[in-house]
Automatic annotation (TrEMBL):
Cofactor: FAD
Residues covered by the Cryptochrome/DNA photolyase FAD-binding domain: 75-204
Keyword entries, A-Z: FAD, Flavoprotein
Keyword Phosphoprotein found: no
Entry superkingdom: Bacteria
Database matches in InterPro entries: Crypto/Photolyase_FAD-like_sf, Cryptochr/Photolyase_FAD-bd, Cryptochrome/DNA_photolyase_1
Biological process terms in GO annotation: response to light stimulus
Binding site for FAD: Y26, F75, D175, A176, D177
Gene3D superfamilies cross-referenced by the UniProt entry: 1.25.40.80, DNA Cyclobutane Dipyrimidine Photolyase, subunit A, domain 3 (1.10.579.10)
Name of the protein in question: Cryptochrome/DNA photolyase FAD-binding domain-containing protein
Organism for this UniProt entry: Novosphingobium taihuense
Signal peptide feature range: none
Length: 383
């Protein structure tokens, strides 16, 4: 599983190995998709970044120490695409709620249901699509450019609902992320930027796959699917602040698996992992790794069981966890926060400086955020 690192050590190793490729090579080769699944032109750090086994700041610092800023701009921009989607969804949580509601409420007919099953099994007869559907099933990963083609063919050629395509990816991707996934599907379908769709093109697919694929019968026009009116922009959720003086239970969720690197001096009495918030075995691996590192760092036991009971047993009046952006973990934490409050225990969340600084600038276009990247790098003492 080192192909898509799920421990901090593996992620740091992957970062070191990828560094020589993060400069101008990334700029020119990142969209070439190896049909044999050797994705050496890209970092494959997404599974680790998504779970914060490693931070964006750590990745960007390492890349800037290996390259002049002019030659690694493209890579840094891509890291900020993740930030952009996270910050955008944070300000429009209604888009996530609508997506979840659609997935539950929509009742596709038999023909559409069968077509989706065939697509997911990689049996559409569209060579590139079928190959990538099978690669996703086998590895849990697809190259970004392949994800764009698959999503586009799903929506415009196969005429299938984008929500179920996004749900398919969410179930299968090793880096499944509510913001990056849902909003990338919406971007491809033309629901993010007005008048901008992404239409897959057979010649481009042939060019990017070294001639291995030349799909037949792709849609020539992009019919933007129906969408509900865009939910209003909301104020971002303010996490409850951490009191560094309080005896603390650290709760590790799949949203932040390296809290000891950012909160080294907390008075931690016990660490527990939110096993019920793991959505797949990859989450479980990352949580296990995070728990052993945290326990070693804070010199405390790792417990399992009811959070409030364990907090009381260990004399903790505060539970600290990583800030959970819009998604499944955030919903689960909301319920937990209420339950803890009833027992007189506060649930405080650590929001990373990166998010605190950048998310406010994600409400408009990516290019609005991108124009500020040099300032962010300076503020975060990375450049
Ligand atoms: C339809 C679709 C669905 C997607 N779903 C997810 C998802 O669930 N989770 C996820 O992490 N990414 C998602 N992406 C974005 C992107 O495809 C992956 O982040 C990227 O392919 C991961 O591979 P990498 O780590 O080798 O990326 P690199 O090219 O090495 O990029 C470095 C890092 O930058 C970030 N990044 C790069 N490209 C993007 C992008 N377009 N959007 C957001 N972040 C980016 C990732 O954190 C990545 O690890 C999706 C893209 C599309 C088109």
């Amino acid at each position: 599983m080192d192909d898509f690192p799920l421990t901090r050590v593996a992620a740091l190793k992957r970062l070191t190995r990828f560094l020589p490729k993060a400069g101008s090579a990334y700029g020119t080769q990142r969209n070439l998709v190896d049909p044999n699944g050797q994705h050496d032109n890209v970092s494959r750090l997404s599974a680790a970044l998504r779970r914060r086994l490693i931070g964006e700041d750590e990745v960007v610092r390492a890349v800037l120490s290996a390259h002049r800023i002019e030659s690694c701009t493209k890579f840094i921009d891509e890291v900020f695409w993740r930030t952009y989607w996270k910050g955008w969804l944070e300000q429009r949580p209604g888009v996530w709620r609508n997506y979840l509601a659609d997935c539950t409420a929509m009742r596709p007919g038999t023909a559409v249901t069968e077509a989706m099953a065939e697509a997911i099994a990689g049996r559409t007869g569209i060579d590139a699509f079928d190959h990538w559907a099978q690669e996703l099933a086998e590895t849990g990963y697809l190259h970004n450019w392949a994800r764009m083609q698959v999503a586009s063919i799903w929506v415009f050629t196969l005429d299938l609902p984008w929500q179920f395509g996004a749900q398919w990816f969410e179930d299968k991707l090793v880096d499944a992320d509510p913001a990056s996934n849902t909003l990338s599907w919406r971007w491809v379908a033309g629901l993010h930027t007005a008048d901008k769709t992404y239409l897959a093109d057979a010649d481009r697919i042939a060019a990017m796959t070294g001639g291995k694929f030349r799909p037949q019968g792709l849609a020539q026009t992009a019919q933007v699917p129906y969408d509900r009116p865009l939910p209003p922009q909301e104020l971002m959720r303010e996490p409850k602040a951490i009191d560094p003086a309080l005896p603390t239970l650290v709760l590790i969720t799949p949203e932040d698996c390296s809290l000891e690197t950012v909160l080294p001096t907390l008075d931690v009495r016990i660490v527990i992992v939110a096993a019920d918030m793991a959505r797949n075995p990859w989450d479980q691996t990352a949580l296990g790794d995070a728990a052993s590192r945290a326990a070693a760092h804070w010199q405390c036991p790792v417990g399992s069981g009811d959070v409030a009971t364990l907090a009381k047993q260990h004399g903790c009046s505060q539970v600290v966890t990583g800030f959970a952006p819009i998604g499944h973990v955030a919903s689960a934490l909301e319920d937990l926060g209420t339950a803890l409050e009833r027992r007189g225990i506060s649930l405080a969340e650590h929001q990373r400086n990166w998010d605190r600084l950048c998310w406010h600038h994600c409400g408009k276009s990516f290019f609005n955020l991108k124009s500020r990247i040099p300032l962010f790098l300076e503020d975060l003492a990375l450049a």
